[in-house]
Amino acid sequence: MLKNILPRGRSRSLTRTHKVAIAGVGTLGAAAVALTAVPASGQTTTSEAAPTAKVAYSTQQIQDVHAGVTGQLAGASQKVAAIEAKQEAAAKKATAEKKAAAEKAAAKRAAKESTSRSAQRTEVKKAAPKSYPNNLDGWIREARAIMKKHGIPGSYEGIHRNIMRESSGNPKAINDWDINAINGIPSKGLLQVIPPTFKAYHVAGTSKNIYDPVANIVAACNYAADKYGTMDNVDSAY
């Protein structure tokens, strides 16, 4: 018999490899023990998993949510449309009011301008006296217009007839041979008026020149109206 040559007390400590090997042997042993507990039939019994219950899903809520959102969108669209319609109506009203105001202002300006033009025409008529031709016809007509304002009678025919007899229509005519001339106050002008008579019956607004045809006619007719009622009643020297 061989002697143990290894000295006692000098056993080496287990390494990590040795520990892993021992653990593996232990595991194999446990597995062997477990196999011996299997029934003799050699069949293993496995439990079947319980059938999973089917889950039922409902789309009713989703449909309700969709309908609610759709309704809200429709309501919002209606509100927007109503606001836009209201704004459009307000804009049209503002435009119509602005147009009416502009038309009213234009009519007012036109009326004002028309009144102004009318007033200007009236002023022009007042400022611009009627003109008459510088001849016998014009002198008689202008004299009669002045006589009318002062209430002095005398027809065109009566004045014309006496002028032709007295001066033949010459406004510068002068009588230097009758009694008035002898007395130093000769008759002058269209109707042969002496200076004192012209001065006494002169009508304001006419010339103070005795040779002025219009002033001479008016003064002579004023004198004839005072002495004879009208120049129409005079048929000879007066």
List keywords for this structure.
7 helices, rod-shaped, single chain, 238 residues, mainly alpha, Lysozyme
Architecture per CATH nomenclature, i.e. the level-2 architecture of the domain at 136-233: Orthogonal Bundle
Shape: rod-shaped
Question: How much is the average pLDDT?
Answer: 79
Spatial extent as radius of gyration:
72 Å
Seen as an oligomer or otherwise, the chain set is: single chain
Described by strand count, sense and barrel closure, the largest sheet is: none
Q: Helix and strand succession?
A: HHHHHHH
Total helix count? 7
Region (Disordered): 103-131
Biased composition (Basic and acidic residues): 103-126
Organism: Streptomyces ardesiacus
Protein name: Transglycosylase SLT domain-containing protein
Verbal overview:
By secondary structure, the protein is mainly α. Among the domains are: 66-128; 136-233, Lysozyme. The chain is 60% helix and 0% strand. It has seven helices and no strands. It has helices spanning 16-36, 60-127, 136-150, 156-166, 179-182, 195-201, 213-228. Helix 6 packs across helix 7. It is rod-shaped, with a radius of gyration of 72 Å.
